[in-house]
């Protein structure tokens, strides 16, 4: 009986190792799919954008298969911790609050927060001038948090489930302005919908570090950091950067 139990245990251990080996050959990446040009759903219905290209490059460097799936922004960290995917590559700002729930790699780009508003309006960004204005931001973002911390006593803040919905309300005149990541705003301003809008004032926050998020204590973080250093060193990162921006965001 004891020998039989040993055989069963050995078989179970072998099966577990086999499962682990298969899992190690594949990385499942979570992104939002609604934050162009960083992450979006392309014409073929698949996730695309800067974040997705970076994720694919990191996987290639690590020699693992890459599967990219989408998640609503509000639930993306809970989904990671529920093991629905292995890492988040979704232009997520590294904040102390998020560090309580996940670990981050070193930053893979740095962003800024800046207002946009109609070209025809006199839109000054000091606190006194913004009094009474309606400002939009995506919920659970660093832009939304900055507005709450710094402007909630003078402006009416409207939160949106996606950045695209904030732009829709700005274009339709239901908002006086939007605060968001500069590079995301830059992309929208180039579109037909954004042609009558422009940046207003200087960036209000210019040290927004963006990282890849993994579960707390996951050794995947170190592997992703090494892969990031490698794609920066060999020029892969710069090629992806140039595909989306005529300037470096690293």
Automatic annotation (TrEMBL):
Compartments, as annotated in UniProt: Cell envelope
PROSITE patterns in alphabetical order: SBP_BACTERIAL_3
Pfam family name, one: SBP_bac_3
InterPro entries assigned: SBP_3_CS (IPR018313), Solute-binding_3/MltF_N (IPR001638)
Domain Solute-binding protein family 3/N-terminal: 26-248
UniProt keyword Membrane present: no
Keywords: Signal
Entry superkingdom: Bacteria
Leader sequence residues: 1-23
Similarity annotation: Belongs to the bacterial solute-binding protein 3 family.
Protein name, as recorded: ABC transporter substrate-binding protein
